[in-house]
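Quick one, tokens below. Sequence please?
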């Protein structure tokens, strides 16, 4: 990877999730980040970050590593979220210690093949249950569907269920 990077000399180095995640690749990514300082031109380093981060077993050590790494190498963090819905501070409380700008990209979705199922009639309440792109969570969606049936007479609503599948990544 280093050889390709030094040969190509990109204007922007976009890294998905690291240093907020993908920590087992630090042996490869830290040398890559270090090599940008040896470049004859300024290479902008950007972190592409999902909206909700997972809590770590040693949260303080994790947060310290993220802050140190971001502040040393990164020029921008792109958070794939709508800030009116989910802000980075909600799952990374020390975000105020990051010195580079944080920009929100909003959510990117594919158009619905059957119109807009989210629009509804406007009169009913809406419950959203989503498990994103992770490997776990099907039980959560099943429980949400069962709970929806149980409360439907007391609280009329519609249930929107989302599970990102591998074929939706195109």
């Amino acid at each position: 990877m280093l050889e390709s990077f030094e040969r190509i000399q990109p204007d922007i180095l976009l890294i998905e999730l690291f240093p907020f995640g993908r920590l087992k690749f630090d042996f490869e990514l830290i040398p890559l980040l270090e090599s940008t300082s040896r470049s004859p031109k300024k290479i902008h380093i950007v972190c592409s970050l999902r909206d909700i981060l997972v809590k770590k077993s040693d949260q303080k050590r994790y947060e310290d590593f993220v802050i140190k790494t971001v502040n040393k190498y990164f020029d921008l963090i792109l958070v794939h979220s709508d800030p009116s819905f989910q802000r980075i501070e909600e799952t990374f409380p020390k975000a105020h210690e990051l010195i580079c700008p944080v920009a929100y990209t909003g959510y990117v979705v594919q158009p619905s093949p059957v119109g807009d199922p989210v629009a509804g009639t406007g009169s009913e309440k809406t419950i959203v249950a989503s498990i994103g792109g992770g490997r776990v969570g099907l039980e959560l969606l099943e429980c949400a569907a069962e709970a929806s049936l149980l409360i439907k007479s007391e609280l009329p609503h519609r249930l929107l269920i989302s599970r990102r599948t591998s074929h939706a990544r195109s």
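The longest helix spans residues 59-73. The two ends are 24 Å apart (CA to CA).
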